[in-house]
UniProtKB/TrEMBL annotation:
<dbReference type="InterPro" id="IPR015943">
    <property type="entry name" value="WD40/YVTN_repeat-like_dom_sf"/>
</dbReference>
<dbReference type="InterPro" id="IPR019405">
    <property type="entry name" value="Lactonase_7-beta_prop"/>
</dbReference>
<comment type="similarity">
    <text>Belongs to the cycloisomerase 2 family.</text>
</comment>
<dbReference type="InterPro" id="IPR050282">
    <property type="entry name" value="Cycloisomerase_2"/>
</dbReference>
<dbReference type="Pfam" id="PF10282">
    <property type="entry name" value="Lactonase"/>
</dbReference>
<protein>
    <submittedName>
        <fullName>Lactonase family protein</fullName>
    </submittedName>
</protein>
<dbReference type="InterPro" id="IPR011048">
    <property type="entry name" value="Haem_d1_sf"/>
</dbReference>
Length: 357
């Protein structure tokens, strides 16, 4: 008889100004969706954003540090989900806030918010990190008087085929597009290397539809969600339309954060910090056009991160300002979700990732 797969949640946190002890590991009960505490890994200063190797054996964390930051590697115990620290390497730039692993598990890509740079680090045979193989610093600024005075990379996202990377250049209101040289670990300019977005938007995170033909970018400052047609052969994005993430008439301060597509491609979700909600858009299956479904409250303040579990049944919202992660049950027919009466306390959660092992 095959062992039932265990689903683990890994929660990256901000340690500065909080009681956090690092990265928190929880096991998900697949019948109830409840998260049950498993372990904590000491992970240095501010192990905020996380990425998991496609083999599910290793985890990587961005240590968001003023000055040159670090990217740290951990081994994942396949029986308990526990993390064991392996090594750290400089990220090359200041305040790394995003990491990802390419689909072949050979490189980690990092986005440095502090100085608007991206870097590539090779993954060694044992899962640890080697020294950088590439580093690119952006230039530019935009209209916001305090948040866009210079380049600020908020994320680097690979397309599903692993050919092209798009860096959300928050500070310059640009999407920088690179072709990944997976042999040498280099980022090369794509056919259209830079895409302008509306001034003052502050692009934060990008996500691709499972069919590889559509992409979505959420804008922190503009409180908008942009929908793109995507050419996966050339890595070219064509803007289709832009949608509001906030309800009509809402005028209080709010800033977008995270964006995800449901695993079956039927809905796109984006989080609002301030309105403290997740906006839901239905994806028209033939054209990819978005239709507003509505907004659901997340029952906490500042939902900086959220995730849909590997089964597609549950959604978890991590609130940085109220130190909690709240569990919801997803209705796969309507796209909406409802609270299950379960939440966990985690100090200043910044990122949540889940795997089935």
């Amino acid at each position: 008889m095959n062992k039932q797969a265990a689903i683990y949640a890994y929660i990256g946190t901000q340690t500065d100004g909080s009681s956090s002890e690092g990265i928190y590991v929880y096991r998900m009960n697949p019948l109830t969706g409840e998260l049950e505490y498993s372990s904590t890994a000491a992970a240095g200063i501010n192990p905020t954003y996380l990425a998991i190797h496609p083999l599910k054996q290793y985890l990587y964390a961005a240590n968001t540090i003023e000055g040159e930051g670090l990217i740290s590697s951990f081994a994942i115990d396949s029986l308990t989900g526990r993390l064991t620290f392996m090594n750290s390497q400089p990220s090359g730039g200041s305040k790394p806030v995003h990491v990802l692993v390419d689909g072949k598990g050979t490189f980690v890509l990092a986005g440095n918010f502090g100085d608007g740079s991206v870097s590539v680090l090779p993954i060694q045979a044992d899962g640890s990190l080697g020294a950088m193989t590439d580093f690119i610093r952006h230039s530019g600024s935009s209209v916001h008087p305090t948040r866009q005075q210079g380049p600020r990379v908020h994320s680097v996202t690979l397309d599903p085929a692993g050919r092209y990377a798009v860096a959300a250049e928050y500070g310059a209101d640009q999407l920088r597009v690179y072709r990944l040289d997976a042999e040498r670990g280099k980022l090369l300019p794509a056919a259209v290397p830079s895409i302008s977005v509306a001034a003052g938007s502050g692009p934060r995170h990008a996500v691709f539809h499972p069919n590889e033909r559509w992409a979505y970018v959420i804008n922190e400052l503009g409180n908008t969600l942009m929908s793109y047609d995507y050419n996966p052969v050339q890595g070219i994005f064509h803007l289709r339309d832009t949608h509001a993430t906030l309800p009509e008439g809402f005028a209080e301060p709010s800033f977008c954060a995270d964006v995800h597509v449901h695993p079956d491609g039927t809905y796109v979700y984006g989080s609002n910090r301030g309105h403290n909600s997740i906006v839901i858009y239905a994806v028209e299956p033939e054209t990819g056009r978005l239709q507003l479904v509505g907004h659901e409250p997340t029952l906490g303040r500042a939902p900086r991160s959220f995730i849909i579990d590997p089964t597609g049944q549950y959604l978890y919202a991590a609130h940085q300002d109220t130190d909690n992660v709240v569990a919801f049950s997803l209705d796969r027919q309507t796209g909406r979700f409802r609270p299950m009466g379960h939440s966990i306390k985690v100090p200043m959660p910044v990122c949540i990732k889940m795997i089935s092992i």
